[in-house]
Amino acid sequence: MKSGTRTVIIGAGIVGLCTAYELLQHGRDVIVLERESTLDGASAGNAGLFSIGHAPLTKPGASWRGLRWMLDSQSPLWIRPSLSPALLRWLWTFHRHCTTDHLERATRTLCALGWRTAQALEHLLDQEGIDCFYRRCGWLDLILDERNLDAAQREGRALARYGYRTDRISGAELRRRDPAYRDEVAGAIHYLDSAILHPGLLLRGLLHAVRAHGGTVRLGCEVAGFARASDGRCIGARLGSGEVVEAGSVVLAAGIWSDPLAAQLGIAVPMQAARGYHLQLEGIGALPQHGGVMHETFVAYNPMGSQLRLAGTLEIGATGRPWMRKRLQMLTAGAQRYLHGIDRAHVTAEWAGYRPCTADGMPVVGPVPTIPGLFIGTGHAMMGLMLGPVTGRILCADICGGRQEIDPELLGVIRPRRLRPSLAA
Hints:
Layout: E1 6-10, H1 14-25, E2 29-33, E3 49-50, H2 62-69, E4 77-79, H3 85-96, H4 100-128, E5 139-143, H5 149-157, E6 166-170, H6 171-177, E7 187-191, E8 195-196, H7 199-212, E9 216-218, E10 223-228, E11 234-239, E12 244-246, E13 249-252, H8 258-263, E14 271-282, E15 291-294, E16 299-304, E17 307-316, H9 325-335, E18 346-358, E19 364-367, E20 374-378, H10 384-400, H11 408-411
Parallel strand pairs: 1-2, 1-13, 2-9, 4-17, 5-15, 13-20
Antiparallel strand pairs: 3-8, 5-7, 6-7, 10-11, 11-12, 14-17, 14-18, 15-16, 16-17, 19-20
């Protein structure tokens, strides 16, 4: 097939593989290039809560809370103290977006995408027969302190205008339904429309599906830059070996590594790497029937086969630093008051990886207006697993000339106050 009808996708996370799958369904030739030799990046390390109808990180008060937590390396969100100009710009822009107006607009957009991404994922799973423990059973916001129940209920009910359902469950009723929960749990808010799944199994199933439909996926293949035509069009990816993989279009979906690659072309996709952690536990006894988030400690949990995944924490700072053992330990410490058996479980796997977090809390999805042939899909933070399927459809439509119904000021590559904001802006 000629390179003009080929798309090169940089990154084999959930966004890259979903984009590849959608393009293959539209008759495109696809080559996916992944820098790692395995699919163990941020997508596979996700908690596995397919939580549609999700609000962004930029909630009113979030920036002030983050500053308070900066001094505590065991806080759920820890910003490693630094005088880095890039970090300071990011923090300032994040603070400016922690407003009610931005939250409402962003939530409206994300809620609309939620229904579309659920439909896209369920269609994909059905068509390809991927078994990833997918269950449309919702997720639970578990609450220890009874004083937090009313506020949590209001937060859930705020999504009702977009069609999302929630149910308030007392602690006694919760334990009647599922004995996995401890007596200390005061209750829960059940987000009924969401799902749980095993991210690693989903990624492996997607990889198989892409290859089965004729796509090429090259693992352990690091991209060093881009190939450009004389008119400026992006016509391929240049590998570290010097090889050029030619294409008619290029999708940059490399997570946190997208920013330095895009910067070579003068395109700013400013993100901060937010390291997250997870543990796989075996032997806790009866597994909970649902997944969810522990409200006070921000630890996510998800039953996966015979094991339980605990995931969470955001550690914002420079990449390449060693894991922090105490942040892994925070996961079990934060879960013990909610679930029986955490103290007697043994760890079967540990993981840490970088989530790409934009300063306004919204992903970057779409064509680069100044460089024909280049498309970007990154910056999903903790929502990559959930938004991956619909992002793939959006990028596929962009490449194939379809019509889009998204808010370009919230999701586009160039939008107000996004690119390299100054502290005086």
